[in-house]
Q: What sequence folds into this?
């Protein structure tokens, strides 16, 4: 039987999954920062999730999802990314604005609605920001990528996905034409800034912004974003 979780608890599980994918564990500081709360306020929710066998809290290290927690995380992420595709593909919303609305929609989507929406969308594999959509069986196609901050200078790449999907970040990247399938080349970097060439134009962005842009060397064409 499925565990009934609050919207807040679902948000925690989703964020923990994403942080765990990047850093192997969700540190309390990073979790609080991603949720826009103070670190001390997350204790009760973490204890609640741990009591249901969804996370393991390791003192001084952070939080990790259990197998059941990961299963639920993929269900939540599947709903979210299909909601984003609904907003962009059917309602024609701009790709840089849909994350916050999808966060609200995902909690109201039943399994039946999710399955019907996926069929209506013709089974997309990626969200508008390039992130893979988990299948109903909980499988996820996670192809090799490299963060822009770790890419080689003067080597050509394709933007694969954006992993910080907050509207302010996406709107900034859209202004610089940094979006899935854009060609990109690193021209110059220092401790705080990156200069890149995007679709032939020179752009500059901070290291924090660059760290959320993942690249690949070979193209992928099944989640086209309109320019």
A:
């Amino acid at each position: 039987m499925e565990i009934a979780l609050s919207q807040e608890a679902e948000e925690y599980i989703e964020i923990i999954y994403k942080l765990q994918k990047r850093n192997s564990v969700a540190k309390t500081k990073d979790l609080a920062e991603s949720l826009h709360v103070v670190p001390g306020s997350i204790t009760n929710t973490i204890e609640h999730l741990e009591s249901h066998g969804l996370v393991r809290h390791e003192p001084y290290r952070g939080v990790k999802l259990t197998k059941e927690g990961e299963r639920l995380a993929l269900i939540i992420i599947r709903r979210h990314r299909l909601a984003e595709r609904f907003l962009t593909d059917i309602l024609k919303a701009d790709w840089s604005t849909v994350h916050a609305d999808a966060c609200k929609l995902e909690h109201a989507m039943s399994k039946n609605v999710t399955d019907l929406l996926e069929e209506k969308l013709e089974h997309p594999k990626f969200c508008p920001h390039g992130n893979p959509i988990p299948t109903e069986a909980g499988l996820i196609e996670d192809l090799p990528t490299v963060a822009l901050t770790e890419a080689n200078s003067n080597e050509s790449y394709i933007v694969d996905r954006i992993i910080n999907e907050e509207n302010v970040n996406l709107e900034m990247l859209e202004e610089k034409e940094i979006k899935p399938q854009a060609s990109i080349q690193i021209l110059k970097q220092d401790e705080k800034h990156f200069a890149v060439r995007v679709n032939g134009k020179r752009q500059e962005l901070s290291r924090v912004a660059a760290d959320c842009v993942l690249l690949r060397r070979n193209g992928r064409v099944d989640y086209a974003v309109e320019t």
Q: What stands out?
A: The first strand starts at residue 55 and ends at 58. Confidence is low (pLDDT under 50) at residues 219-227. The first helix runs from residue 7 to 23.
